[in-house]
Amino acid sequence: MATSTYPLTALARTTDPTAMLRRFLGLDAVVTAGNGAAYAAVSGPLGDFLGVDSGLLLGLGAGLVLYGIGVAFLAARKSPPPFAVQAVVEVNAVWAVLSVVALVAWLSPSTAGAVWIPLQAATVGGFAALQYAALRAVRAGRQGLPRP
């Protein structure tokens, strides 16, 4: 596999599509679980700072920690199941879209929250895009393998 075949190789620091996928999943897991832990641990002060209900942050935080653990489990697998990775990609994409919708339709955040929410949505959307591209590379590699 040539380096030029997968432009994400420089970012992932590998030309192996499975390793690339596992690294993007691992980074997602760390960021998601860390973000969730912060939301849960300091939901009151963080809610005040972002202008978001602390109960909402507490619930989101607990969910994000659990989700991050699930994504970490996939990242730890030698060969993450494609259907599970596809689910992560889709959940991340939905999260990114719903974050923007919530900002526009439901939330009335502070200035900090109005900056943080789209940045978070862009980060999660970026994870979805990276994971999707790596998953496509894994699938393309598997298609080229000889069948037993």
Automatic annotation (TrEMBL):
What is the recorded name of this protein?
Answer: Integral membrane protein
Recite the UniProt keywords alphabetically. Membrane, Transmembrane, Transmembrane helix
Organism domain of life: Bacteria
Which spans are transmembrane here? 56-76, 83-107, 113-135
